[in-house]
Amino acid sequence: MIPAAALVLVGDQLDPLTEAKKFSRKSARTSSDTTQLRIRLEELGRAADLDYEKFRIKQYGYSAASGAIAFALIMTLSANLILAISATVLAGASVYLLIDRQLTQDVKKRRELIEAEFPAIVELLTLAIAAGETPLNAMLRISNSADGALAKEFQNVVAGVRSGQPLHESLDAMGRRVKSVMIRRFVDALVTATLRGAPLVEVLSRHAVEARGNQRNRIMGAAGKAEISMMIPVVFLILPISILFALWPSLTNLNMFAA
Length: 259
Known about the structure:
With 259 residues, the chain is mainly α.
């Protein structure tokens, strides 16, 4: 499976490579999803089966290519078969895990970006609904005027409603798609207010205040971590150098007197 995926990266200009490409796609499609890859891809807006196949083929291909390079390099330098096989396995597994970790980092970065945009988006939604627009029209206006990950999620909600899905179901799908506690609470409150006929402006205003407080706490936490990080070079680099400059003349004079 892995050698076939490596051949797909070259292209399908030759007939054997076309068969290898079909085999690798079939293998990627039927591979087990033990790392919740589909859930992470769906959070990034790549929920199609083709996106899953492309990501798996990328993992297999890059792992096979790195393993082949490691094998050729070790065999050229030392001609040790056992060492070459070990390096091949290690390089392939490392690249495979590195690509998976990069996807996790992308998901985390997008989630943090959505949470950072959330207070401003909620305030815009509150102003639009207070001005007399419906929740759907307010989301449509925000998705057309704003440029961000949360605005794209609102665009998906509007597209779901236009395709015949009820508003509360489309909002619930957005809450399940974005794995954020803040977004989940906002969606639950909005769905409950929509179904029960509660005033949306009060609900959104309360969430806007809460979102601003959460954003302030997150910024304060990041500032505290940065302060601790700045202490590391001060304690381990600047302070020893200062002590050395202060003690060096005295040590030099003591050595002269001792001589």
